[in-house]
Amino acid sequence: MLISFLKDFYETTSLSTYKVMAANLITNFQDNIFLKLKEFAQLSFVSQSTVTYFCKSLKFSGYRELIFKLKNEREHFHKNVNQVIKIDDFTFNIYRWLQNNINFIINICQEILKYKKIRIYSSYQSYMACLYFQEILRSKNILVEIVNCSYIDNFEYINKKEFKINLFIICGRDCKSLKKYFLKLFEYQYQRGQFLITTLNQVKEIDSDLFNNKLILDYEKDDSLFSIRHFAFTYLFLSIFLNF
């Protein structure tokens, strides 16, 4: 799949401009957005010729061919992506998912209240919801430190301060670096107070026995889109907050 290739390219390229363009293509693909060349160049803060060079490095003749392939892939693998979902049905699915995982919510509440701080290792997809969680916990005088995937390689900096409670959110496109990092983290530091949120696909690649508490994103109609996942994470974090 082309989108999988782009995700791997995003993880491995050392060129910052190419990384930005790959990230924008992946995000737009997930949200079913396909921009014109000029619009995409403006979004990525590069020239149109740079976009063309980027596409040729991926073995395409240009941006038009790349977008054509992405559109076809989107239509083939996401035939139901535009299906209308009743908001009542969707919120009920999330509510039922949270009820099925009430022990996770209770346990993380107890640990956060005990230590008054938590560090979150966030995937790109969950980062905005984590900022919301950080903001609402301030009213409870709880310190929330968010480690974005951008800082994963700076191992020494991250480990200057020890946090008893650590939440890892592994979903979306930046999982390789997160998985590589947390294995190193467990090897050197923590033994308890670990919480994991991940997907059915990702959990197969993780030694989940390392975690005291696990929550799987397995609610009905999860299609891995940012818009849906963001709502689920926000609902989850609000539920944790209201259980204090």
TrEMBL record:
Source taxonomy: Bacteria, Bacillati, Mycoplasmatota, Mollicutes, Entomoplasmatales
PANTHER family per the UniProt record, alphabetical: GLUCOKINASE, HTH-TYPE TRANSCRIPTIONAL REGULATOR HEXR-RELATED
Protein name listed in UniProt: HTH rpiR-type domain-containing protein
Domain HTH rpiR-type: 30-73
GO molecular function: carbohydrate derivative binding; DNA binding; DNA-binding transcription factor activity
Cited Pfam families: HTH_6
Gene3D superfamilies, alphabetized: Winged helix-like DNA-binding domain superfamily/Winged helix DNA-binding domain (1.10.10.10)
Organism expressing this protein natively: Spiroplasma culicicola AES-1
Coiled coil, from the record: none
InterPro entries the UniProt entry points to: Homeodomain-like_sf, HTH_RpiR, RpiR-like, WH-like_DNA-bd_sf
